């Protein structure tokens, strides 16, 4: 098994990993992927999963404390940084990037975007 299942996810991404035996690691932060192991972190511990045992990887949602542990930033700080980095981007592009980068749901990303946009309008 290669790390192909993880190729769409970068370090700091929130993922849900399903193992071949049915066990799930939900909403964990991807720390890194080697040729044999994916290192992950949740709000309690850092752990590795063997790639040979991984059945599926899906986009997850980082829970606040886990996101801050890995990135050192809150979701609000991540959203502010992203908004500043994408001044010419469409609303939908920023929301999509917030969903990927900060592990937010569409509703959550939309709310963060609106609050930051409103703050910059005044």
The ordered H/E elements are EEEEEHHHH
CATH class of the largest domain: Mainly Beta
Q: Structural class per helix/strand content? A: alpha+beta
Shape: elongated
Radius of gyration: 15 Å
Percentage beta strand: 25-35%
Total E-strand runs: 5
Helical fraction equals: 25-40%
The rounded distance between the terminal residues' Cα atoms is 52 Å
Main pleated sheet = 5 strands, antiparallel
Which segments are poorly predicted (pLDDT under 50) over 5 or more consecutive residues? none
Q: CATH topology of the largest domain, anyone?
A: SH3 type barrels
Total discrete domains: 2
- Please tell me the overall pLDDT: 86
Question: What's a quick, concise take on this entry?
Answer:
This protein is α+β, with helices and mostly antiparallel strands. The protein has four helices and five strands.
Please render the helix and strand layout as text.
Elements: E1 14-19, E2 24-33, E3 37-41, E4 46-50, E5 54-59, H1 64-71, H2 75-85, H3 91-102, H4 106-121
Antiparallel strand pairs: 1-2, 1-5, 2-3, 3-4
Helix pairs in contact: 2-3, 2-4, 3-4
Give a written overview of the molecule.
It is a single chain. The chain has 122 residues and is of the alpha+beta class. It has two domains: 3-65, SH3 type barrels (Roll), CATH 2.30.30.100; 73-121. It contains four helices and five strands. The protein has helices at residues 64-71, 75-85, 91-102, 106-121; strands at 14-19, 24-33, 37-41, 46-50, 54-59. Strands 4-3-2-1-5 form a five-stranded antiparallel β-sheet. A hairpin with a 4-residue loop joins strand 3 and strand 4. The longest helix has 16 residues, at 106-121. The radius of gyration is 15 Å and the shape is elongated. The mean pLDDT is 86.
């Amino acid at each position: 098994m290669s790390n192909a299942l993880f190729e769409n996810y970068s370090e700091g991404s929130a993922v849900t990993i399903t193992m071949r035996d049915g066990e799930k690691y939900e909403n964990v932060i991807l720390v890194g992927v080697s040729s044999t192991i994916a290192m992950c972190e949740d709000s309690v511990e850092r752990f590795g999963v063997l790639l040979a045992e991984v059945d599926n990887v899906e986009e997850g949602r980082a829970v606040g404390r886990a996101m801050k542990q890995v990135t050192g930033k809150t979701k609000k700080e991540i959203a502010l940084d992203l908004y500043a980095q994408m001044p010419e981007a469409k609303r939908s592009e920023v929301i999509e990037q917030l969903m990927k980068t900060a592990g937010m749901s569409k509703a959550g990303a939309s709310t963060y975007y609106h609050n930051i946009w409103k703050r910059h309008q005044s």
